[in-house]
UniProtKB/TrEMBL annotation:
Keywords: Cell membrane, Cobalamin biosynthesis, Magnesium, Membrane, Transferase, Transmembrane, Transmembrane helix. InterPro entries: CobS. One of its GO terms (cellular component) is plasma membrane. Its cofactor is Mg(2+). This is Adenosylcobinamide-GDP ribazoletransferase. Its main location: membrane. It holds the Pfam family CobS. Its EC number is 2.7.8.26. It comes from Phocaeicola massiliensis B84634 = Timone 84634 = DSM 17679 = JCM 13223. GO terms for biological process: cobalamin biosynthetic process. Signal peptide: none annotated. PANTHER family: ADENOSYLCOBINAMIDE-GDP RIBAZOLETRANSFERASE (PTHR34148). The chain crosses the membrane at residues 105-123, 172-190, 196-214, 226-245. It comes from the Bacteria.
Amino acid sequence: MKLLAALIFFTRLPFWRITEVPAAYFKRVVDYWPFVGWLTGGIMAGTLWLSAQFLPMSTAVILALLARLLVTGALHEDGLADFCDGFGGGTSREKILSIMKDSHIGTYGVLGLLFYFGLLWNLLSTLSLSLACMAVASGDAWSKFCSAQIINILPYARKEEESKAKVIYDRMSISTWLPAFIAGGLPMWLFLNRSYWWAALAPVAVFFLLWQLLRKRLQGYTGDCCGAAFLLCELSFYLIINLIYTNLW
């Protein structure tokens, strides 16, 4: 039931038709975020591989990105845009939170998305097709696991009734952290050559930097911060994959 809640929360696929999920389960959806990465990363990798059979690699990457955007409803990208707007234009904790809650996108949000998608497209387009597919399947799940740790080390920055999703996530217990860790790392272990495992350190480093920023400026996190953390962690994963690939090639 908790996994179903996570699939409903983090995707736009009609999992809600399976059965009605009690509201309490949505407080635990972050525990299963890496498992959702199997689905979203798998769809993205599958779309990339199929598209590249009859289209240029650069075009196939665009279609793969579009596929994940459609599946997730651009949930994380919306978070990244709000994050950039908030921290780009906010001069105080209250101002940052106010800007991030605004549904309108600003200059910093537009620039953030442009740079993000430009870098992501370039990094994936320059890889071989097989490596790009394996990197996407691995990076999605691992980056979601790394980003999920934000709920374990920081408090929620708003009151629950002020949350966009109207829910505050419960912190992971040991019994839920371990499966999440396995779910995050398993695709990388299965699909990537060991020489590329060093890329797993990049999301950890990016997460540490974001944690320091959020601790200093917000004294907590928001849902937008979770989405932004995932995308930035994932981007760093592909960056190191690309660097290793270039040197090995």
